Backbone:
């Protein structure tokens, strides 16, 4: 949906905005929700599932179905011993909110009746569990075990598409991942989900986006219900772990054995769930209990155990490939019934990972000798670009030999670093084999504290250091990475911290909150110890004053393996921060369960990674397509012409990208508020309705506002400088009021009809301002520079002349600058107002024999005005490029 190679990012403006009338209607709706609380408890209390906690509700009746008001319901956590006692209301209804997910013992009793006990009621996060005990007449000291009849597998009180994956499923089902087991591989089997095959797809079929250096957690990319993969939202224990720069990924992937359950909502979100358009995923990690528990594991994948042989191997033995993943978990009490701990560690290594790539190298006959380079064996005529100023009148080199004195010294030096072909012929004649390593450690610690029956707290800390190494295909001559990722060494560290808790102000009023921080220190670098382009190859304009601009420039010769460092994203250094806060109030009044809350999200990216074009690098890039050694109007240039152009040092295109401030920072602040009501109309009918308001504020930078390009004037405006307003004239809109509505109707005890409708705001962040001019200055030398003619058969420069910026470098102190003709940028329109994503569903669910469940339904999603890359410089069809 989004193509990073485009120059300009355009957000489609919304069709409507919040008018004064709409604001008045919203105020009336919110007021109405509050007034509903005051209508009184006319019918039983409702269930109230929450994002971080679960809910247990039900109705206590006698054998004839008559309600038993005043019945006592005691709920005890089987793991921690924490308990809660609830007295059923006048209709026999009870509801326990803010329950930690887990197993509970539920006891229902009333004078003159036998006591009913269910020893293990499983409460899941963001779900409602219904338990309706029927008490028999008799002595209260007589107990009846109702465990065998109390469990239900139906979703009876919610209208969203809500899936729970338990710890047993996560640990027992096969998990995939290029670097070990990843719980996210189970997300791709959720109805409506699909793996993102547009990203790098590894051998086991999981879609892992971006390089290992940029995504060391090997987060898996997926789409849900046709919505962009950039619009999912993942939280761990309620705290967001989004990856600000690469939203398709998560910043941290917890150890599979540490997961208690994964809750996924894909349609008709509750009003509490926001800042999401695709899937809302909440991962709950395990907590300690009154009993000590632990586990250990080890997984090994070894090429010696029968791995298939690659047909292109030139050695008799299989290359060594060993993937090992091992670790432990342990948890238990610190103070019984009060204070608990859980900790884990997992080590993942893939050592001596031999990668094989087959590429094309120039054989010895096409490499420099004392007599020059003879192209007779190629069957291609090489034309001398100096034989005539008119490319259509060029003549061939005598004998089809390029003399030694015409060869570029930079090209000769670089060719001297190339390995020799391992096979014969002109194509696919070199089998590259090297070693890549991947090392990652994941460590988690979680503390739970039950201060009283009213107050519970938790804190969690996660840490994951990584070290990754990728060999270049061509050894000293560089080239692409063997594994297609980042060249060289990539160290990284990820820190995640969160703290949260709940407090019962009264039995009917509960407050809960969670705060989280995420820090990502990631980077990759290759061969930066010298300015190879300037000092060794002696090509002016390459490299730069910063160490991160060192190394070899990129040499891309059509039909041949790339040389130097062709990776446009290398080197890079990320120091990204994220702060999230979610606070909620729950208020139960009779048949209504109200919930109000706030989501706050502050994301900060601080980068060195000059990007913004499809081929330019920070060291300089030279492309050779062969036109300078072909004759215009004659046979089209081929790979041999391209190699000849490289030997002569005559690129057809050349350019560079500079980052003029380090770090390059962009900050985003987003927030949402909501109000919603779960109304238990009667025992069988639940209606949920609410409204959410979301706002994505204009991005800013660390020292100024954003750098925005205005296509109407051709000028770049920098907020806060030269009298330019801090928002640089861009308006992100007043936000949206987003309605949510759902109905769940039970037909008997074994069938449920559900339907829901909801709207979300497009959550894609304004990350593309990172690559905006003038902080990122991308430039390309004009075509036909040497004869000032717009002719693609004339080289743009020589390797002796080097790179010459066709424009004056920008002055960062100025707030208004003209965008140079040969520079590119990314931007948003003046009115970058996000639109909405509408989701709806209708579901029929039926309980079948042997605890099977049958579900059939219709799920729909419609996205309005989604943001995407559009090249506004593209010409009309048929008019050229």
Residues:
């Amino acid at each position: 949906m989004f193509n990073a190679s485009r120059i300009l990012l355009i957000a489609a403006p919304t069709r409507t905005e919040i008018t004064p009338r709409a604001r008045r209607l919203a105020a009336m709706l919110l007021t109405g929700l509050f007034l509903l609380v005051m209508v009184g408890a006319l019918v039983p209390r409702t269930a109230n599932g929450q994002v971080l906690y679960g809910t247990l509700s039900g109705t206590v009746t006698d054998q004839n179905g008559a309600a038993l008001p005043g019945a006592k319901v005691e709920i005890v956590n089987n793991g921690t011993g924490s308990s809660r006692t609830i007295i059923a209301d006048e209709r026999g209804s009870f509801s326990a909110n803010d329950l930690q997910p887990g197993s509970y013992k539920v006891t229902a009793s009333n004078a003159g009746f036998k006591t009913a006990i269910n020893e293990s009621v499983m409460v899941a996060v963001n779900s409602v569990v219904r338990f309706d005990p029927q008490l028999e007449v008799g002595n209260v000291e007589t107990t009846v075990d109702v465990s065998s009849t109390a469990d239900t597998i139906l979703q009876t009180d919610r209208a969203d598409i809500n899936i729970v994956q338990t710890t047993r499923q996560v640990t027992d089902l096969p998990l995939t991942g290029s670097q070990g087991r990843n719980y996210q591989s189970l997300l791709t089997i959720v109805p409506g989900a699909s793996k993102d095959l547009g990203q790098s797809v590894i051998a086991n079929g999981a879609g892992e986006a971006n390089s290992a250096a940029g995504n060391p957690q090997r987060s898996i990319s997926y789409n849900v219900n046709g919505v962009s993969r950039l619009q999912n939202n993942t939280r761990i224990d309620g705290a967001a772990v989004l990856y600000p720069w690469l939203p398709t990924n998560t910043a941290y992937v917890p150890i599979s054995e540490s997961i208690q359950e994964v809750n996924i909502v894909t349609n008709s979100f509750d009003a509490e769930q926001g800042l999401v358009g695709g899937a809302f995923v909440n991962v709950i990690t395990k907590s300690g209990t009154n009993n000590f528990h632990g586990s250990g594991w080890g997984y090994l994948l070894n090429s010696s155990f029968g791995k298939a042989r690659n047909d292109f191997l030139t050695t008799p033995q299989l290359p060594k490939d060993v993937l090992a993943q091992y670790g432990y978990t342990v948890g238990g009490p610190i103070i019984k019934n009060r204070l608990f701990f859980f900790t884990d560690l997992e080590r993942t290594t893939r050592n001596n990972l031999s990668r094989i790539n087959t590429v094309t190298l120039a054989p010895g006959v096409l490499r420099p000798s004392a007599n020059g380079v003879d192209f007779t064996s190629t069957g291609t005529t090489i034309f001398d670009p100096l034989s005539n100023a008119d490319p259509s009148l060029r003549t061939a080199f005598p004998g089809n030999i390029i003399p030694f004195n015409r060869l570029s010294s930079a090209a000769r030096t670089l060719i001297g670093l190339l390995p020799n072909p391992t096979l014969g012929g002109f194509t696919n004649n070199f089998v590259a084999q090297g070693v890549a390593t991947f090392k990652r450690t994941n460590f988690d610690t979680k503390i739970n504290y039950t201060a009283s029956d009213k107050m519970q707290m938790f804190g969690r800390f996660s840490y994951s250091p990584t070290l990754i190494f990728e060999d270049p295909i061509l050894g000293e001559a560089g080239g692409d990475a063997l594994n297609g990722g980042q060249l060289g060494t990539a160290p990284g560290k990820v820190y995640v911290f969160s703290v949260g808790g709940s407090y019962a102000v009264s039995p009917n009023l509960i407050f809960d909150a969670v705060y989280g921080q995420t820090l990502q220190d990631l980077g990759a670098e290759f061969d930066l110890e010298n300015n190879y382009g300037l000092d060794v190859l002696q090509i002016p304009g390459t490299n730069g004053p910063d160490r991160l601009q060192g190394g070899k420039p990129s040499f891309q010769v059509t039909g041949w393996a790339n040389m130097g460092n062709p990776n446009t994203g290398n080197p890079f250094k990320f120091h990204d921060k994220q702060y999230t806060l979610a606070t909620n109030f729950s208020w139960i009044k009779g048949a209504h369960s109200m919930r109000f809350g706030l989501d706050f999200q502050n994301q900060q990216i601080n980068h060195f990674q000059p990007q913004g074009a499809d081929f330019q690098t920070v060291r300089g890039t030279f492309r050779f397509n062969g036109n300078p050694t072909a004759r215009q109007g004659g046979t089209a240039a081929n790979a041999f012409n391209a190699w000849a152009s490289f030997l002569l040092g005559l690129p057809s295109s050349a350019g560079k990208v500079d980052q003029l401030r380090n770090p390059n920072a962009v900050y985003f602040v987003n927030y949402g508020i909501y109000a919603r009501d779960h109304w238990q109309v009667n025992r069988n009918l639940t209606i949920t309705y609410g409204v959410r308001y979301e706002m994505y504020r204009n991005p800013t930078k660390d020292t100024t506002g954003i750098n925005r390009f205005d296509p109407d004037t051709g000028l770049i405006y920098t907020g806060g400088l030269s009298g330019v307003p801090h928002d640089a004239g861009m308006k992100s809109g007043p936000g949206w009021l987003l309605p949510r509505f759902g109905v769940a109707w039970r037909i008997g005890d074994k069938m449920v009809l559900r339907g829901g409708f909801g709207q979300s705001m497009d959550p894609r962040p304004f990350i593309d301002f990172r690559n905006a001019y003038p902080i990122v200055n991308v430039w390309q030398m004009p075509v036909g520079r040497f004869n000032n003619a717009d002719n693609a058969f004339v080289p743009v420069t020589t390797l002796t002349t080097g790179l010459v910026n066709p424009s004056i470098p920008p002055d960062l102190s100025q707030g208004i600058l003209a965008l140079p003709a040969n520079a590119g940028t990314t931007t948003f329109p003046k009115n970058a107002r996000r639109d909405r994503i509408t989701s709806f569903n209708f579901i029929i669910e039926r309980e079948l024999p042997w605890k099977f469940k049958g579900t059939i339904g219709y799920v729909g999603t419609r996205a309005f005005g989604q943001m995407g890359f559009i090249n506004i410089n593209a010409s009309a069809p048929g008019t050229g490029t």
Notes: Confidence is low (pLDDT under 50) at residues 1-49, 197-206.
